[in-house]
Structures are given as C-alpha cells and as structure tokens.
UniProtKB/TrEMBL annotation:
Domain N-acetyltransferase: 8-95
Protein name: GNAT family N-acetyltransferase
InterPro entries cross-referenced by the UniProt entry: Acyl_CoA_acyltransferase, Gcn5-rel_NAT, GNAT_YJDJ
Tree of life domain: Bacteria
Length: 97
C-alpha cells in the first residue's frame, strides 16, 4: 500500500514539506522568496520514502502555487532544474535572469 502524500507550504520554515497520512515528514524543498521570485534551493526525500513520487509531488504543489501567486521561479536546486527541463508545462515560470 502506497502512502498518501500531502504537500504543505511550511512558511515558518521557508519550505514545502511532504507528509504521509500519519503526519510523518517524507521530504521537503527549501525556498527563498524575493520580490516576484521564488528560488528553490534544496530538495530532499528522506531515505525511507525514496522511489514513491515524493519529490515530484512537492515540485507540482510548489510550482502550481508559484503560478497561482504570479511568481517567477529560480531553480537553484539540481532536482528542480531537471524537473523543469522534463516538465515543459512549467517553462513559462522560469526566471531567466
């Protein structure tokens, strides 16, 4: 049985967190907010939860939120760089500066 993944913006920690149905931390991405831009700095899936789509769920939620808030995205993290290269539906969000 696969864990349910819920992704929340833990604003007080400046990161998106993935939690399982029991509230256990599965993974996260740290971010920094600048005027009009969100930089994704470091993504990590905890070892016990790797291979379950955790990082992808975090990426989708964080990028959808960026779009909804009208933010440009600076993918400083290698995972986000790769994700954005593969998921061109988010290409319009990338801050080229």
């Amino acid at each position: 049985m696969q864990n349910e993944i819920s992704v929340v913006d833990a604003k007080e920690r400046s990161r998106y967190e993935a939690l399982d149905a029991d509230g256990n931390l599965m993974g996260f991405v740290d971010y920094a907010l600048h005027p009009g831009v969100i930089s994704f700095l470091h993504a990590e899936t905890l070892p016990d939860f790797r291979g379950r789509g955790v990082a992808g769920a975090i990426a989708v939620k964080s990028l959808d939120d960026a779009r909804a808030l009208g933010l440009r995205v600076k993918p400083a993290c290698p995972y986000y760089q790769d994700y954005l290269a593969k998921h061109t539906e988010y290409a319009d969000l990338v801050d080229a500066r």
